[in-house]
Specification:
It is elongated, with a radius of gyration of 21 Å. Strands 1, 2, 4 and 5 form a four-stranded antiparallel sheet that branches. Strands 3-6 form a two-stranded parallel sheet. It has one domain. Helix content is 0%, strand content 55%. The chain is mainly beta.
Amino acid sequence: MGASPYDKIVTPDPVKSNFVTPGSKTQSGPDCTPQPAFQGFTATFYRAFIKNGTEVKRQNYTWKYDAGDEIKCS
């Protein structure tokens, strides 16, 4: 394997923002499966490439998690 062109790569924890509150739905029928609600959010993350103590490159990432509605069965 070759040597890395960077001294280190910094990868902090993702930051969550833009929280979305889930809804609630009631369903019926034999195929109904209850589900707890879960919150949606946007996550941002980056990787910083360090050479000689200076950031020389940065890769930014953003992704979205949709909220999941609570499903109640009747």
